[in-house]
Amino acid sequence: MMAETLEKKTTSKKSTKSTTKKSKYSKATYLKWFEVMYRIRKFEEKTLFAYSKQYIRGFCHVYIGQEAIGAALATAITPDDKLVTAYRQHGVALARGLDSKSCMAELFGKSTGCVKGKGGSMHFFSKEHNYFGGNGIVGAQIPIGTGIALAEQYQGTKHLAVTMFGDGAARQGALYESFNMAMTWKLPVLYIVENNGYAMGTSVERTSNVHELYKIGSAFEMPSAPVDGMNPEAVHDAIEKAAKHIRSGKGPYFLEINTYRYKGHSVSDPAKYRTKDELKSYMEIDPVYTTEQKILDNKIASEKEVNKIKEAIHAEMEEAFDFALKSDYPLGSELYDDNYLQEDYPFIMD
Ligand SMILES: Cc1ncc(C[n+]2csc(CCOP(=O)(O)OP(=O)(O)O)c2C)c(N)n1
Ligand SMILES: [Mg+2]
Q1: Which of ligand 1's atoms lies nearest the C-alpha of 200?
Q2: Residues in contact with 233: Cβ distance below 8 Å, sequence separation at least 6, in sequence order
Q3: Which residue's CA lies nearest to atom 7 of ligand 1?
Q4: Is the pLDDT of residue 197 over 50?
């Protein structure tokens, strides 16, 4: 899936050159997008470094390349909205406002992590941030997000249940059942597929006759749209429009956000199923770099202001790394704490 294809697939016909785009949003919004994306990028680079040193072990899927989605989530929904996503989730958690220190400590398996070191890379969670976490089972969070939306509707709130998943989950039966129920009951759910072109090493083109995933919504008459996921403005616009629709009580909305992951599926994947040229074509429209250029070229903020953000994030990452390193592992005696246990579960006979 080349960047050209992405251009064709999305409604944005604008050039990716930063200078040609008009500044549509406030300085604060552009700087927020840059800060969130830069934080995610640097956090993930630190994660890969820590993994190479074996401070982090096991499964680990980084968000590098997909940062524009995180940026838009930080500005287009409210802290009261609920969010659930898949296992490629470090960046989404940071965008929701989880602290770099508690996220890095979670990756290290330390007791100071956001789920006390028992969740790891795929299972961050924070009640305080209305972040229902990552999920290791492909597509399993789709019915969970739909259920969260039902709870919001039942309680009469105006909050969204943002339910995110990868293109690999778009063929799971659970999606079709959830879409059907959500449309029937007009649930306040925003479904987002982060289409990065591949499920592990399998391209979208190899798994279905329908390559434009937003079209899946039409079988349910669910409003659906493709989005340029390399551009925070486009993602923000799309989420804002969808959120307005959902909050007005009209029911769900489905966005296919077309993006790309620069690294392999996980740290152990050399990504040999794609060409170097394909990767290069996306790196040329890198959201972190193009947003920085846009800020500078359009004089939205000075180089000094941008550098201040970068320096603060570099310091934040050093601090997060040291914090994780120096924290303790959970105690063995805490192994069964915080696990769900139904004392009177009737189906175990012995
Ligand atoms: C139900 C289920 N089937 C298979 C797997 C193995 N698996 C883990 S990740 C993955 C690919 C998912 O790709 P996608 O949804 O596109 O997410 P991405 O990694 O691109 O972010 C698969 C098949 C799983 N975790 N759960
Ligand atoms: Mg994918």
Answers
A1: 11
A2: 21, 24, 25
A3: 138
A4: yes
